[in-house]
Amino acid sequence: MSHRVINLHLVSDSTGETLNSMARATLARFEDHHVIHHRWSLIRSRLQLDRVLEGLQHEPGPVLFTLVDRSLRHGLEESCERLGVPCLSVLDQVVDLLQGQLGARAREKRAAQHVMDADYFRRIDAMHYVLSHDDGQGTAGIAEADVCLVGVSRSSKTPTCFYLANRGIKAANVPIVPNATLPQELDEPPCPVVGLTIETNALIEIRRHRLRLIGASGVRQDTNDYVDHDSVKAEILAARRLCSQHGWPVIDVTRRSIEETAATVLQLMEAWHVRRGRAPGAAPEDPAAAVLGVSQPRLEPRE
Fold first, then answer.
1. Fold of 118-290
2. Is the pTM here over 0.70, yes or no?
3. Distance CA 145, CA 191 (A)
4. Which residue has better confidence, 158 or 109?
């Protein structure tokens, strides 16, 4: 099969996040082809649409769009038909399905998911929380956490916490350091505690890269416990034993993306609340209520 290069135009009257996510998820199944993305966001006037049409004329290719304004939709669709390029409104089928099930018309309101409501400010508050409680800072604040992640250095705790914060989750993280005790707040944690682990070789490579970034290349890596194979392996095993002693579930992040790790953390949070007799959504402040369904996550490394 010959490789093909195409232009893909993503046209949105909002931030374009929906289109970007859909395009990324779909194009992941076409590894052997090259797609040039043209992202057009915040298209809310005819003048702005004209710029899109000019770009489309110079570099024609399929168009995916999310436009609420009917005149802009029609202008884009007519231009695509004239240029002979396919054009698809990606949300129409979902909207039609839900209108039929709900018996109500969808509002013609752009960027409806980006309102500054209580959920928005909860996400901002969660971001501030993660900044203040990263890498073992402010351990007394664990009492306010929705979840606490523990693990050895460079096991993806911080990026996972920030991803969770974008879902409105206050996530603290505490490093497991050799010969150091955990903060006493974790003796009887008020929230779920989840351990993150990673394979030895993968962790060593990440740590070596980290050393290069911070200008520590002069450190003799063959004698540095931070990247010594036997030392790192022992560190990981000790961390897993510690989690086992406390009954904390452990997620192997070696072959998981941050998004997959965060999704598994959310499942574990849900299960934690269910075990304590609080149904998901029973408490308005419970961010885990956003997770649909309860399933046992797979914690072993993926194939």
1. Rossmann fold (3.40.50)
2. yes
3. 7
4. 158
